[in-house]
């Protein structure tokens, strides 16, 4: 390691140098004799939740348009890639170089209209069709024969629902009109309401899941991202509840010392104010 110590502290603003620097730092952290005990103890499974968390933090920085924060969060996400690649190298699976080469090769292969001899004078819709055709060939090479194969199990449930629905729709398994999806939603709501007192908890959860799946389908038909829409609703609820807390605080109260009527009145205040601000 002494021969590499200068690289560990090298701040030269060069991409290749800094990527290699990060790789060397990760190697040092995982060194069985001199590394960090916590880093040494980690596995793919224990690190995976941190990888997912970092992805969400990237999305959060983008949502806030906090570009300085985004730089740091992207670095954290990159470190997760380096961490997994280091563990894979130790196990003899692959290296960071393999990871970078694989994604570069994939992007070139999937963009023949940019890097090959195909014309790029295509509509976005045609490019999506071409993209899916290429991905289908890739899945065939991986022995992924089913239309839904390869949709990651670890995706947020609403996002995965939309992706599953998109895959099925591309081979014709889809409602042709959004009105039919709305009817399906009403059907699912009715089934849930009618059976809520008679179903077992497991059956009730299944019915509720069907309802959420139908909601995701409506969003897809309307050209909306269900995950993004729910995230926006969460943000709105957080913002409005903060207004309630501030209003109660001005009256010398906490939410626990209030009641539903008072809090609902404050909720309506901020709702009307936001509506007026939109014009």
TrEMBL record:
Species lineage: Bacteria, Pseudomonadati, Pseudomonadota, Alphaproteobacteria, Rhodobacterales
Organism the protein comes from: Ketogulonicigenium vulgare (strain WSH-001)
The protein's name in its UniProt record: Nucleoside triphosphate pyrophosphohydrolase
E.C. no: 3.6.1.8
SUPFAM superfamilies (UniProt xref): all-alpha NTP pyrophosphatases
Catalytic reaction equation(s): ATP + H2O = AMP + diphosphate + H(+)
Family statement drawn from the similarity comment of this UniProt entry: Belongs to the nucleoside triphosphate pyrophosphohydrolase family.
Domain NTP pyrophosphohydrolase MazG-like as annotated: residue spans: 42-115, 181-240
UniProtKB keywords: Hydrolase
MF terms (GO), sorted A to Z: ATP diphosphatase activity
Gene Ontology biological process terms in this record: dATP catabolic process; dGTP catabolic process; dTTP catabolic process; dUTP catabolic process; response to stress; TTP catabolic process; UTP catabolic process
Pfam family membership, one: MazG
């Amino acid at each position: 390691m002494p021969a590499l110590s200068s690289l560990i502290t090298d701040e030269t603003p060069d991409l290749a140098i800094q990527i290699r620097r990060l790789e060397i730092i990760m190697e040092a952290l995982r060194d069985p004799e001199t590394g960090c005990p916590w880093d040494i103890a980690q596995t793919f499974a224990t690190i995976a939740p941190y990888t997912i968390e970092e992805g969400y933090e990237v999305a959060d920085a983008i949502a806030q348009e906090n570009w300085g924060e985004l730089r740091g969060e992207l670095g954290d996400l990159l470190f997760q890639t380096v961490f997994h690649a280091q563990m894979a190298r130790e196990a003899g699976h692959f290296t960071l170089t393999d990871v970078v080469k694989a994604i570069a090769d994939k992007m070139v292969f999937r963009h023949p209209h940019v890097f090959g001899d195909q014309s790029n004078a295509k509509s976005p819709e045609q490019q999506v069709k071409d993209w899916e055709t290429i991905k289908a060939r890739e899945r065939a090479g991986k022995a992924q024969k089913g239309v839904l194969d390869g949709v990651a199990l670890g995706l947020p449930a609403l996002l995965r629902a939309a992706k599953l629905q998109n895959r099925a729709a591309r081979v014709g398994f889809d409602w042709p009109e959004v009105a039919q999806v709305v009817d399906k939603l009403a059907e699912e709501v009715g089934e849930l309401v009618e059976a809520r007192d008679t179903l077992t908890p497991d059956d009730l959860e299944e019915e509720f899941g069907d309802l959420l799946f139908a909601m995701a389908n409506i969003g897809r038909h309307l050209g909306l991202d269900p995950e993004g829409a729910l995230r926006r609703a969460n943000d709105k609820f957080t913002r409005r509840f903060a207004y309630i807390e501030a209003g109660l605080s001005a009256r010398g109260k906490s939410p626990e010392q209030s009641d539903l009527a008072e809090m609902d009145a404050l909720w309506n205040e901020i709702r009307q104010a936001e509506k007026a601000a939109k014009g």
